[in-house]
Design a protein that fits this description.
- By secondary structure, this protein is of the alpha/beta class.
- Helices cover 29% and strands 25% of the residues.
- It has six helices and nine strands.
- The protein has a seven-stranded mixed beta sheet. A two-stranded antiparallel sheet has the order 1-2.
- A hairpin with a 5-residue loop joins strand 1 and strand 2 (62-63).
- Helix 2 crosses helix 3 (66-76) and helix 2 crosses helix 4.
- 44% of the residues are buried.
Length: 213
């Protein structure tokens, strides 16, 4: 599991690309500059790991393009120590970004094969989320709620009610909404019953699957 000076140079270039595309959060950019994205990909993609592109991973899923990871992370407005719920651990790359931003990360993955891979990979890289679990992202993690922020890394046809319930007042929920092409959506919880909604452009994610027992 090598991370070379060449890889670091490619990460620096990637950060410059993200800045040109409008990512301004130094916390986000700093995390992306440090994380060896090539180690989250199949080795056949290593030469392309620092291009701003999505790639296929295990179980028919994808690792999101770095801009999407950065954009969603920036929308969360994370402060050190914030409790963040991630729905869709996937490759673990987004999880790693959140951890390096100083978040206390709780993450749920629907695909058992991916869950097992990521549970091994992240500790090898020195990245330690507070809690990784295999289960249904639509249900969130009520026993660990409430959360300062919630990030959904798959396209959902609707906003799951349990996720809204598990968000702190003042908290932020970032979710791609829709089927096929989604709309990146930010919800800010105003009080017990009210949420402020912002729609932030089109995106494409794999679908958010429910866990079938």
């Amino acid at each position: 599991m090598k991370d070379t000076g060449k890889h670091q140079g490619l990460r620096n270039q990637l950060v410059s690309v993200l800045e040109e595309k409008g990512i301004t959060d130094e916390n986000v950019l700093g995390a992306i500059k440090k994380i060896p994205r090539h180690l989250f990909l199949n080795s056949s993609f290593e030469d392309y790991a620092y291009q701003d592109k999505a790639f296929p991973i295990t179980a028919g899923q994808t690792i999101s393009q770095p801009y999407t990871v950065a954009f969603q992370s920036q929308l969360l407005n994370i402060k050190k120590g914030n409790k963040v719920l991630e729905i869709g651990t996937g490759s673990g790359y987004q999880t790693a970004v959140l951890c390096l931003m100083g978040a206390t990360v709780f993450s749920v993955e629907r695909q058992n094969e991916l869950f097992k891979q990521t549970s091994v990979l992240l500790p090898k890289l020195g990245i330690r989320p507070k809690h990784l679990s295999f289960g249904d992202g639509y249900k969130g993690l009520p026993s660990y709620a409430p959360f300062d922020s919630i990030i959904v890394t798959a396209g959902a046809p609707f906003i799951p009610q349990p996720l809204m319930a598990q968000l702190k007042i003042g908290g932020r929920l970032v979710i791609p909404l829709g089927e096929g092409v989604q709309i990146m959506t930010l919800l800010i919880r105003i009080n017990e019953t009210q949420f402020e909604k912002h729609e932030l452009g089109e995106c494409r994610f794999v679908p958010l699957l429910e866990h079938k027992n």
